[in-house]
């Protein structure tokens, strides 16, 4: 007996694989410093935890409405309109689901059809390097992933001309992640306006069904000079933009598994109705107590959010300065999220003291972990130029960052 082809051919998440290996080594007593997990080292704010506990004590442990309870959806709709500036969002334009990954999965399932025999697949435009799960989630839905490569020099951002050239009659969606995982760069409002102009023009001619999927999970973790803006706030494309967000990263609530999807206007409402049916046939609904905790986080925990954001800002400087000083390491300055994505390809072709050749990011990461006990994520699965890079998270304290950079520098110095 065999598994289905789509599951048998599915690669496991490389970030999860590195996290698991680092944890296993730590359990054996190896002094591993892990920069693999995209998870804040902070704890969920007390007010959010108390709200969740109170909800449990008040027996909010029964099935919830499939799209999420009314109070949560109304709050998220207000946030999207008042804070993010997206027009035409009501509670009927919002679905609450079990984390951002599930939100993306449902969204792709609702957008793409598996092509019938003889048909060409619809295209998902994906700026790369990109988070490791974007492409697999799209492919599972039947999409043909079309990469739009970016580089360190471009700040890992696509240009309007690049986008215009990539759109075809088969283009169904553009997936835009800003601030970016793994690159920690983000688009300026002017850059988003220029992309919106291209999308609006293409929707009138080449690709009338074009939808923008905006992953804005890191919108609150922004610490550069660039202000955050939702691409769905541009009225020309608001109704064809699906926005995905969650409380996990900003409020240190990764284990609560809460994400949400929102749309705008008539299409947005119809889209959420479709997602609600799909969620009803998968996870049914999310727990009421997790929604209570999320509401508290979004309305009562601004001080906690500011404290964590300022910590990430300090850590970004420490991480960037430490890595930029290492010979042969090139990286873009992080302005959002909590990652750096350095290019280490200058050291490909060298060998470790034990004679192991470093011929890829995967080999670099493997030897760094084995010899100096530093866990990083190799860049191959981030696609595009990711094969030259490794990803490090600075969602950890500054002392660990400095020690990790010291070990990385020692590893690189040992290569010949």
Provide an overview of this structure.
By secondary structure, the protein is α/β, with parallel strands linked by helices. It folds into two domains: 5-43 and 303-414, Aspartate Aminotransferase, domain 1 (Alpha-Beta Complex); 62-300, 3-Layer(aba) Sandwich (Aspartate Aminotransferase, domain 2), CATH 3.40.640. 40% of the residues lie in helices and 12% in strands. It has 13 helices and twelve strands. The protein has helices spanning 5-8, 14-27, 46-57, 70-83, 100-111, 134-140, 160-166, 189-204, 265-280, 288-300, 302-324, 361-372, 398-414, and strands spanning 33-34, 94-97, 123-128, 144-149, 171-177, 211-215, 241-246, 259-262, 339-340, 374-375, 377-378, 390-393. The strands form three sheets. The protein has a seven-stranded mixed β-sheet, sandwiched between helices.
What is the gist of this entry?
With 416 residues, the chain is α/β, with parallel strands linked by helices. It has 13 helices and 12 strands. Strands 2-8-7-6-5-3-4 form a 7-stranded mixed sheet, with helices on both faces.
What is the gyration radius calculated from CA atoms?
Answer: 21 Å
CATH class of the largest domain: Alpha Beta
Low-confidence stretches: none
From the spread of the alpha carbons, the general shape counts as globular
The structural domain count equals: 2
What is the CATH topology classification name of the largest domain?
A: Aspartate Aminotransferase, domain 2
Number of strands: 12
Write out the CATH superfamily name of the largest domain.
Answer: Type I PLP-dependent aspartate aminotransferase-like (Major domain)
Taking all residues together, what is the mean pLDDT? Answer: 96
Spatial sequence of strands, sheet with the most strands: 2-8-7-6-5-3-4
Give the percentage of residues in beta strands: 5-15%
Order of helices and strands: HHEHHEHEHEHEHEEEHHHEHEEEH
């Amino acid at each position: 007996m065999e598994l289905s082809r789509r599951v048998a051919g599915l690669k496991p998440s490389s970030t999860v694989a590195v996290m698991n290996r680092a944890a296993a080594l730590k359990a054996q007593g190896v002094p591993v410093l892990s920069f693999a997990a995209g998870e804040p080292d902070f704890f969920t704010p007390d007010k959010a935890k108390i709200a969740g506990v109170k909800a449990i004590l008040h027996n909010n442990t029964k099935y919830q409405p499939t799209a999420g309870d009314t109070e949560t959806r109304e709050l998220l709709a207000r946030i999207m309109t008042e804070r993010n500036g997206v027009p035409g969002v009501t509670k009927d334009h919002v679905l609450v689901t079990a984390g951002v990954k599930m939100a993306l999965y449902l969204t792709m399932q609702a957008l793409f059809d598996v092509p019938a025999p003889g048909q060409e697949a619809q295209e998902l435009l994906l700026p790369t390097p990109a988070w490791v799960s974007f492409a697999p989630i799209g492919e599972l839905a039947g999409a043909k992933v079309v990469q739009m490569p970016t580089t360190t020099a471009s700040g890992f951002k696509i240009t309007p001309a690049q986008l215009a050239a990539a759109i075809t009659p088969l283009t169904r969606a553009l997936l835009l992640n800003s601030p970016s995982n793994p690159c920690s760069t983000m688009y300026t409002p002017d850059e988003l306006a220029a992309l919106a102009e291209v999308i609006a023009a293409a929707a009138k001619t080449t690709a009338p069904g074009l939808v923008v999927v905006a992953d804005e999970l890191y919108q609150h973790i922004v610490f550069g000079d660039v202000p955050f803006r939702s691409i769905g706030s541009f009225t020309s494309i608001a109704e064809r933009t699906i926005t995905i967000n969650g409380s996990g990263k900003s409020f240190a609530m990764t284990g609560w598994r809460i994400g949400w999807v929102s749309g705008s206007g008539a299409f947005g409402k119809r889209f959420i109705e479709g997602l609600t049916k799909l969620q009803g046939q998968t996870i049914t609904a999310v727990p009421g107590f997790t929604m209570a905790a999320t509401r508290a986080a979004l309305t009562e925990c601004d001080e906690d959010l500011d404290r964590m954001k300022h910590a990430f800002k300090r850590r970004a400087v420490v991480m960037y300065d430490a890595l930029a000083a290492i010979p042969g390491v090139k990286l873009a300055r992080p302005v959002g999220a909590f990652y750096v994505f350095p290019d280490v390809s200058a050291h490909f072709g060298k060998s470790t003291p034990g004679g192991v050749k470093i011929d890829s990011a995967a080999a670099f990461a493997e030897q760094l972990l084995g010899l100096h006990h530093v866990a990083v994520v190799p860049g191959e699965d981030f696609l595009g130029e990711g094969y030259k890079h490794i990803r490090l998270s600075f969602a950890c304290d500054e002392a660990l960052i400095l020690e990790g950079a010291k070990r990385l520098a020692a590893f690189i110095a040992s290569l010949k």
